[in-house]
Structures are given as C-alpha cells and as structure tokens.
Design brief:
Elements (H helix, E strand, L loop, with lengths): L1 E5 L2 E4 L3 H13 L3 E4 L21 H4 L16 H15 L3 E2 L4 E6 L4 E7 L2 E7 L1 E4 L6 E2 L12 E2 L12 E5 L3 H12 L3 E6 L11 H12 L4 E4 L1 E6 L3 E6 L12 E4 L2 E4 L3 E2 L3 H5 L4 E2 L4 E2 L13 E3 L15 H17 L3
Parallel strand pairs: 1-7, 2-3, 2-8, 3-4, 8-21, 10-17, 11-12, 11-17, 12-13
Antiparallel strand pairs: 5-6, 6-7, 9-18, 14-15, 15-16, 19-20
Amino acid sequence: MENLFSTQVAIIGAGPTGLELAVALKRAGIAHLIFDAGQIGHTLTWWPRNTHFYSTSERIAISGMPLQVHDQQHPTGEQYLAYLRGVVESVDLQVNTFEPVTRIFKLDEGFLVVTETIRGTHRYTVQQVVLATGGMAGPRLLDIPGEDYPHVSHYLDDPHFYFRKDLLVVGGRNSAVEYALRCWRAGARVTLSYRKPELPKASIKPALMQDIETVVRDGKIRFLPATMPVEITPFEVILAPTDENGQPTKDETTSLPFDFVLVCSGYVADMGLFEQLEVTLQGEEQVPVYNPDTMETDVPGVYVLGTAVGGTQKKFSLFIETSHVHVSRILAALQASGS
C-alpha cells in the first residue's frame, strides 16, 4: 500500500535534538513530521544497562523541560529515555517511529521523502528537510577475519553475560575502559588490548583513568598495550604488535584463548541520505558543508542538526549539550524563509 502525504518540514531522526527541534516547530506553528527507523532515542538503547551520561542533567535537558534525577547524579540512559518519552507525551509530538526513510528526491519545489514501513511504502512532499541522523549508525569495524563470529560484539548489553568468562576488550578510550571495569566487577576475567603504548589519559575521564590504573597495577585486569587483533577464531585471538601509529606490524604475533571479544573501536555515521541529496561531504569523516548561522547545507532547503554535523567523528566535539544551539538557528532560518 502506498500513500502520499504533505507537510512543511521533515525531520529525519528522533534523537534528543531531533525531538527538540520538533517541539520548537510545534510551538512556532510550523507543520512538520519527524521520522526514525527505530524508537525515539534509539541509539541510547544500545547502551549497557545503568550507564551514566558524562553530561549533567541540565546540559542534556531539552525544550526548557527540566530533567530531574532522584539522586542528583548524572542521569542514566534509562532515565533519559523515560525523560524523552515524557517530553513527547507532554507536547504530544507526532513521531513516525519504525518508519525508516529510504529515499529523498529533490523536486522543482521541495522534496519527496519516501519511507518503508511494515504496512507498505509512504511518500511525503515537504518544503524543507532536516537531517538529524546522528553520528553513531553502526560500529567502526576492525575489518579483520572472524569479526563477525557470534562470540564477538561491538556493543555491551549486560556485564553479567561475561561472568566467569575470559573476555578480551579491544580499545582504549572511555567506553573500552568503562566496559572493561564493569565486566571485571561482574566477575569476568578481563584483558584489555590497546593499539598504542599507553592509554590516552587526556581522552579518558579522570575517575576512570585512576580506576583502570589501579586494577591493572594490582593485576586484576591484564593490559596489553601496543597490540591489535588481526584475526579472531572460535578459540583464540591473534594479536599483532603495533608501530608508533598504532598499526599492526609484521613482527611475530601472539595467540591467546578467549571466550568472548568486545570490540570498542568507535562508531560511524550513515551519510547515505546526505549523499542522495548531493550534500557536499568533506574529508575522511564526511563532514557536511553547511552554514553555521542557519545550519543549512550547500543544498538549499536541506539542514543538518545535532551530531550529524560532524559526520563520523573520530574525536567527538559534538554532543547533545553542544547541539542545542542548532535548534534555534534552524528555527530562525525557517521562520525567515516564510515557513
């Protein structure tokens, strides 16, 4: 079944900033629809249970609605998802969840947005498109043999899963360090492999850095610096030494047995819709070209919002708390255009 609908603005992505813009548009009386391939805040559902934000509650609150946390600590992912549900309910936002946008076509005036749902194809004509697709569509793969085995994961669900199992954690930044510590405290026998000679202290939260240094020094977590997996088998992981740039060398490798492997190598953005619309993407990180005063890309009528502004960020500088300003800029631009 195929249906044709019409609205003024299509927001692609129902993460925090996408929802924040939807609230602003509703308050301003600008007709819009917001789409997501999953549920609202979908990326947050990948987080391990009871993972705390590094940001404080007031910095990630949206649309002037306070985020209250019962213990006044940094909120967890579960608390934030409940907060986002409350925002949607209180403002009564219409969010087309589980409706992935598969194609966007430029028309003589505006755009045609095509979605695929379980009930069929839907089409929407819109005047402006806002791409709030985030920067974490999928894991950054090591691209080595065996990475697709079922005992290898790029996401941590529950540390309990690794109780009394030999676990190799690959990575050396905040997530890898935090996951290694949490799994060890849940009873896993943890080894941490990092491709550089030492952990990047400047990039790791001080409390985490102090914690990992202590448990490594005490021999509770084994640390293998300047190593990198080059192959994973059902029984072992083959680790190679690395050079000064963190790349594997041709020197002798080491094979170590592990029950599970948790790869924390970062994430990549999905810039497919940007490419369809012929937005210029710059560099290896595929950063979209845009006007920082309006957030409009070099394709008229196409705006970028939130962490999608940074493409695939290797060193994150764009977060929820630094993206609030994008909302007011886009709103002002749409109002100035007569929307």
